[in-house]
Design brief:
alpha/beta, Rossmann fold, Nucleotidyltransferase, domain 5, 3 domains, 8-stranded mixed sheet, 7-stranded mixed sheet, 19 helices, globular
Length: 552
């Protein structure tokens, strides 16, 4: 049978009569026949295409297209996590559902979980603020995994028994409550054969030594008692601020994760890290650092998603539909509370997913100067940029855009970009022209000595002239010493945009500044080094200020 031709004809009918429910049912019947004949992938593609048409033509929750829409979701539910979660609650009033009101925000995370299940990823990370629904999302994921393959052993872990017990009860509720959730519709041949509230285990279809699901806290019995051949899910492994502020307790948590939790996963198991960030050395952070920087993990496929409380414009990312979630006002109030406590680092970590190392850092927000975007009257004495180019790997091109008024340096904008020269050279030229930059200095070595010429070419294309010079790059140890030497000038004379005035690049630049440690190894010092260069440009080696009044 020529399925493609048949489907094309039915879609022509749908185009003419978009509210003809029978035509949609015809497409679904063709998809079912294709599935029987081994064309599973294409059948689901066509079904998804049809469902998208239904959504575009549907007004209201239940109309003449509700039945084919529901049938379409059910057809895809065992292979598509998104379709499964939509179908699971479809009989509930829309405002009472978990997933549909949050789908717009959570879809990227759901797709990453799908890629993890499909074997496109080995490991995945999701960081998000407290109470946005991440644990319930993990419950939905787990019930889908159990129905798809009950023979695999899945392991869920959190920082306390209270959390793991709540997760265990939540999974049971989804599977066993047919009035609220339609799990049995999706997996009609699956059934619970054993549960144990004490050990927090669930077995589907048959009793097994290692259950279909085990829920166990990080501080519970893991070694010898748990096995993971399916998904290893970690959910908030750090309990609170007291633990986050203790380096010893953070390292103790990591050692338990590395020795007791990760070792439960077989080589082909998938690992999902989900939770609120607390520190650069929380378990998720240390695992990310290992995967990113250790060459022995170069073949491991992973992805990181950070879902901050506020977007680049300062608006809430979690103002869900049907008035659930959190408003911009709520998050601004939370930030104000952290600011009042002098603990903006906790706001950045927990709510923005941007932790900084608290111990031994050179620059702390409370010791820096800030401005609200308004500048002193008149033209600046100087307008200049210091450029620290990327030296390869995960380095950033970092450059503060500086307006100098006397001894005060206002950082009105930044360039902070990890792209290659095709991106960063035009970007530097564009920013220089935008802000009327008079002088730009680029640090160069043998690797980056041609970078200046590329920037110069981009400036010429724009017809904009800048006094462009290079400065030899010092050795790593000398760079760090330069940052240390210039730190007092940066704290005393540099003014940075306030939190709510910053672009995404500016915020990332500041986080890099805050993360620079006085002792120990600094793998990424691009932003603080560019500030040290700017201080050299402003004040000279002997700390003498040279002011040049020019037409601005």
């Amino acid at each position: 049978m020529d399925y493609e031709r048949l489907v094309s004809r039915i879609f022509d009918v749908i185009q003419e009569k978009p509210l003809d429910a029978g035509a949609y049912e015809d497409v679904l019947n063709v998809c079912k026949d294709m599935k029987k004949n081994g064309l599973l992938g294409r059948a689901h593609e066509i079904n998804t295409q049809m469902r998208n048409i239904i959504v575009r033509n549907t007004i209201g929750a239940k109309n003449e297209l509700f039945k084919p829409y529901k049938s379409s979701l059910l057809f895809d539910a065992d292979v598509s996590l998104d379709a499964y979660m939509l179908y699971l609650e479809i009989e509930r009033p829309p405002a009472e559902r978990f997933y549909q009101p949050r789908r717009r925000v959570l879809l990227d995370a759901v797709q990453m979980m799908q890629d993890l299940a499909d074997g496109k990823l080995n490991e995945a990370f999701i960081s998000c603020p407290p109470r946005v629904g991440k644990t319930t999302l993990l419950m939905f994921l787990t019930t889908w995994l159990l129905g798809r393959n009950s023979e695999q052993a899945n392991l869920y872990s959190a920082y306390s028994d209270v959390i793991t017990n709540a997760f265990y009860q939540g999974v049971l509720e989804i599977i066993t409550d047919p009035h609220t959730y339609l799990w049995s519709d999706v997996f009609p041949n699956s059934k619970i054969v054993q549960t144990n509230a004490s050990s927090e285990t669930i077995n589907l279809d048959r009793k097994k030594r290692y259950p279909s699901l085990t829920c166990r806290s990080l501080y519970g019995t893991l070694n010898g008692a748990c096995d993971c051949s399916g998904f290893l899910i970690s959910d908030d492994l750090i309990g609170g601020i007291e633990e986050a502020l203790s380096h010893d307790r953070m390292m103790s948590a990591w050692l338990k994760v590395d020795n007791n939790l990760i070792t439960r996963a077989k080589s082909d198991a998938r690992i999902l890290w989900c939770g609120t960030r607390w520190s650069m050395i929380d378990p998720a952070g240390l695992r990310m650092e290992l995967l990113t920087n250790d060459k022995r993990f170069k073949k491991r496929k992973y992805k990181i998603i950070n879902m901050p409380a506020l977007d680049d414009k300062g608006n809430s990312n979690f103002n869900y539909d049907y008035n659930v979630g959190f408003s911009t006002e709520y998050y601004m109030q939370r930030r104000a509370s952290f600011e009042r406590n002098g603990d903006i680092a906790s706001w950045n970590a927990q709510y923005m997913g941007q932790p900084v190392e608290r111990d031994g850092t050179l620059f702390e927000p409370e010791n820096m100067r800030f401005f609200n975007g308004s500048l002193p009257g008149g033209d600046p004495d100087r307008a200049f940029m210091a450029v620290d180019p990327a030296y390869g790997g995960s380095d950033f091109v970092a450059s503060p855009v500086c307006y100098q008024y006397g001894d005060d340096i206002y950082v009105v904008d930044v360039v902070y970009n990890s792209g290659d020269k095709r991106t960063t050279q035009p970007l530097l030229a564009a920013v220089a022209q935008k802000y009327g930059i008079q002088r730009m200095q680029i640090e160069a070595n043998k690797t980056t000595e041609a970078f200046k010429e590329g920037v110069d070419d981009e400036l010429k294309k724009r017809g904009y002239h800048v006094t462009l010079t290079t400065k030899p790059a010092p050795p790593t140890t000398s760079k760090e010493q330069r940052i240390l030497d210039r730190a007092p000038d940066i704290r005393l004379h540099f003014l940075f945009l306030e939190d709510g005035q910053r672009s995404k690049a500016y915020s990332a630049f500041m986080q890099n500044v805050y993360s620079f440690k006085i002792t120990g190894k600094n793998k990424h010092d691009d932003a603080p080094d560019s500030l040290a260069m700017a201080a050299d440009m402003a004040f000279g080696i002997q700390r003498r200020v040279a002011i040049f009044r020019r037409t601005f």
